[in-house]
Structures are given as structure tokens and as C-alpha cells.
Amino acid sequence: MDKAFLKVSIAATALALFVIVLGAFVRLSDAGLGCPDWPGCYGKLLAPSEAQEVRAANQAFPERPVESPKAWKEMIHRYFASTLGLFILILAGLALKNQKQKGQQITLPILLVLLVGFQGALGMWTVTMLLKPAIVTLHLLGGMLTLALLWWLTLTHHYKDTDDNGKTLVVSHSTKRWALLALIVVYCQIALGGWTSTNYVALHCWDLPTCQGEWLPPTDFKEGFTLWRGLGVDYEGGVLSQAAGTAVHLTHRLGAMITLIIVGGLAIRLFTLGSATGRRFGILLALMLCGQISLGLLNIILVLPISIAVAHNGGAALLLLCLVTINKKIKITSKNAQSSSIKPVSETNLSMTR
């Protein structure tokens, strides 16, 4: 096993998680346009902070005066995202170097290089297209996909030469399908959460369990889920009507209930497998699911405090990693193999009695 590859993949996974949480903090603190240009900030490598730099930046970009705290938040996020890209390039280089080693992965590291390149383009378009919700949501989903693939890469490399029979999840075909469904549902719910956040409609329903004091307030799903609008529109603060924003928020709530049923059902299935590993994963999954739902409720009750909102984003990423791990560790039971191994024993016993 190439220990350098494993160490870099673990570091890249941890950094990807940090970049996702940091990106959520930047977005939720309204610093997504803290730098109106890309890749620099007001034409500089560092965010302007000195009085002379601020005056020059304001003259160059009169439409968006400098707010140094927001500019620094945005640039720090870019620095860490660029570092993540460097880590992924190193992973691809190590993979190519060790391609003759047994079990060395090549395709996934190369795919990650392409993905992180596309992520960089989305980061640029996020700024140049003035926080267009479709671009920002896609940027979030790309970050989550990068995180999931890095973790899958790490798990695959870690266990390629390891006898992990004592820690695998031996399940039926139906449970394996349920685990895959749970992974897809969580990813889709992340997309809905991103769409809710990037359209600034997280508080369009300010009460629980009703919305605006009603079970079904006025909604406009067509406007709410129009994915692409005209260019040149500044989306900071949101542009949806009340009815359209309500439709988006209610859809996210519905997605949360579906997620509760599917992921909660998987947690119960794992807990009742009869193995210590199954119980551990069942409990872990249930705790993470309850934590995520609690954070979502607190966002409404406490009127979207930034710490809770950022934690909600981080919790979604951790829940995704948990489901990636479960899907990686699953192995299918072989009832036919079990029955065939029992049959010769029974025949031997019969012959002995005769």
C-alpha cells in the first residue's frame, strides 16, 4: 500500500469538508460577492484593507464598494479551495506514478482533477453571474460530490490490502438497495437545501409545523423552480416572490420528511442486522439524522442564526460521508453458499449414523 497516497487522500477529504463548511459560512454571511472579480479581489491577490488600497478599489469598482471583512472571507475561502485543488493534483500524480502497483486507482483521481477544475469554473461564474442560484447550488453539489468521491477513494485504498471481514456489513439485496436509495435521497435533499439557501427563502415559513400560520399557504412552484433566469441580474438577497419562495421552502420541508423515512428506515435495518458493526452504524446514522433534523428546526425557531445554519450545512456533509461509508462496507449475504456448506455436513452425519 502506498502510504503517501493514503495520507494525501485523508488530508484532501478533511480539507474538502472544511471548504464546504467555510463556503457555507461565506454564503450565509452574505460575503459571496465580497470580491466582485475573480480570481483576485478588486484586482489584487489579497483583499484590500489599507485605506489607500480601499480608495483605489472603490474607484475601480464603484458599483460595489469595499467591505473588507466580507472580502477577506471570500478570499480565504478561495485560498483553501485552491489548496484542495493542489492536493487533488498531487493525488493524481501519485496515482500515475504508482499505476503499476496492484490495486492502485487511476480513474477516480483523474476524474477528481476534472471535477475540481469544473468547481473552479463554477466558483468564477458564482461571482461573474452575481450569485445566480443555479450556479451557486451546482457549486455546492459539486463540492459535496468531490467530498464523497475523495472519501470513497480513501476507503477503497485503505481496505484494498486489508482483511476487513470483521467490520463489513453483511446485508440482503433489499438492504443494499435501501442504502443506495438513502444516499441518493440525502444528495437530493442537499440540492433542495442549496436551492432554498441560494434563493434566500430559508425563513419564508417562520413557524412550525404550519407555514405562515397555514397548512398550505399561497405557492408558485413554477416561478420557484425556474432554474435559469436572465443574465445581469443581481441575485444577492433573492429575487423570488413570496409565493415562489414559499413553494421552495415547503418542498425542502417535504424532502426532510422523506429523508427522515428513508434514512431512518435504513438505520433501523442496520441496527437489527444482528452484528456489532450493524448496530454501531445504525446508531450513528440515527444520531446524525436526528441532529440534522434538530438543526433544521432550530434554524426556524431561532430565526436562522449563522452558527446553526453553518452547522446544518456541515451536518449534511457528515451525513453524506456516513452513507458513503455504509455503502462502501456493504456485502451481500449468500444464502445459497450457506445452504451448500450445510448440506455436506448433514450427509456426513447421516452416513455416520448408518
Question: Descriptors for this entry?
Answer:
11 helices, mainly alpha, 2 strands, two-stranded parallel ribbon, 354 residues
The SSE order reads HHHHHEHHHHHEH
Total helical elements: 11
Backbone structural class = mainly alpha
Strands of the widest sheet, in order across it, are 1-2
Strand content: under 5%
Low-pLDDT segments, ≥5 res? 336-354
Number of E-type strands: 2
pLDDT averaged residue by residue: 91
Radius of gyration: 24 Å
Q: Percent of residues in helical segments?
A: 55-70%
How many domains comprise the coordinates? 2
Measured between the Cα atoms of the first and last residue, the distance is 53 Å
How many strands, which pairing sense, and closed or not: the largest β-sheet? 2 strands, parallel
Query: Could you say which overall geometry the principal axes of the C-alpha atoms support?
Result: flat
